[in-house]
Amino acid sequence: MTVSHRKLRRMDITPLLWPNRRVLVALILSLGQSVVGSMEARGQEKRIIICYVERDLNNLPPLVAEAKGYFREAGFATQIVQVRTAVSTAAILSGAIDYHTSFASTIQRAMQGAPLRGLLTMVERPNFYLVSRPEIRTVADLRGKIIGVGSLGSINSIIAHQVLAHHGIPADAVTIMAAGDFQTRMAALKSGTIHAAMAVPPAPVHVREWGFNVLAFAGDYVDLPLAGLSTTVNKLKTSRSEVVAVITPILRALQLMKSNRSETVLHIQKFLKVEKKLAEAAYDLSVKAFSATGSVSAKGIQNIMDMAPAGINRPVSLTDVVDFGPLKEAQAALGIR
């Protein structure tokens, strides 16, 4: 099956495929941002590293799996690290890390020729909210204003444009500004540096407490699987049984998160370092976005491919960007349909 997409100018991805020493040093330095888990293996446990970019609820499932001991039960000594966006792709391609919680961006990299594959989705619709300062009361009020996103050209910046388009606002009617991670974007919003921002829960709770506004939930307008799990083609070829075993704890965590509010709230409190009331609100705002099965719709993948950046001028099939074989094996083992 071949999936159609825009024919665009091909992008040189060589620097991503062959990271230099400085990139790897930057990765090592970045591991200190946030590290969960221990690399101290016991017995026959295998060491693996899973990375994520932003400390938000989209990346919670592996943390829950680690806290519950699911990875250790599967035979892994797992380290979950926060890695800067600039080095995350180079890190996984070099083998410095084993798995990445990206999904949409992985598919786009694979379309450009990077030997990466999406494995599953943890968030089946965009868990982003468009939030704004008090003077911005509707999406229409954003004409001529500045909207903060994580980075230019990122998935959340594309989603921002799609939400605006649904409200009749063209891309050139606003300024999209790279405003850093969640905490940095919220600080910029409070200071007035930006007028609105794309943010994940518990941001809507925060902004309402400040007297600011929640304008839209992106998941109501965009069918797009966001966070998930990805790895390299080489990992799939040489360690396929490991991939299945890594997916299984994440599926167990997703099942728990969808069915057990009180326990998930405790994990949110620990991960985001927030009080119980805020964690409860964040859960209620996010639970509908999380997948219970890890499966991805063909339409969702098509939407990601249609959003591909400049650089692709060849037909791309589903097997060029995803491999759901290990997911199906893990689902079968857990009795998930």
Summary?
This protein is of the alpha/beta class. It is built from 15 helices and 13 strands.
Features:
D-Maltodextrin-Binding Protein, domain 2; six-stranded mixed sheet; disordered N terminus; alpha/beta; single chain; 337 residues; 13 strands; globular; five-stranded mixed sheet; 2 domains
Blueprint (SSEs and pairs):
Elements: E1 2-3, H1 14-17, H2 21-30, E2 35-37, E3 46-52, H3 60-67, H4 70-73, E4 76-82, H5 85-94, E5 99-102, H6 104-111, E6 116-121, E7 129-132, E8 146-149, H7 155-166, E9 175-178, H8 182-191, E10 196-199, H9 203-209, E11 213-217, E12 227-232, H10 233-238, H11 240-259, H12 261-272, H13 276-286, H14 298-306, E13 316-317, H15 325-334
Parallel strand pairs: 3-4, 3-5, 8-9, 8-10
Antiparallel strand pairs: 1-13, 2-4, 5-12, 6-12, 7-10, 7-11
Helix pairs in contact: 2-5, 3-11, 3-12, 11-15, 12-13
Order of helices and strands: EHHEEHHEHEHEEEHEHEHEEHHHHHEH
CATH superfamily of the largest domain: Periplasmic binding protein-like II
Strand content: 15-25%
Strand arrangement within the widest β-sheet reads 2-4-3-5-12-6
- The dominant shape is globular
Helix content: 40-55%
CATH architecture of the largest domain: 3-Layer(aba) Sandwich
Main sheet summary: 6 strands, mixed
- Our Rg estimate from Cα atoms comes to 19 Å
Q: Helix/strand/pairing class, anyone?
A: alpha/beta
Mean pLDDT: 86
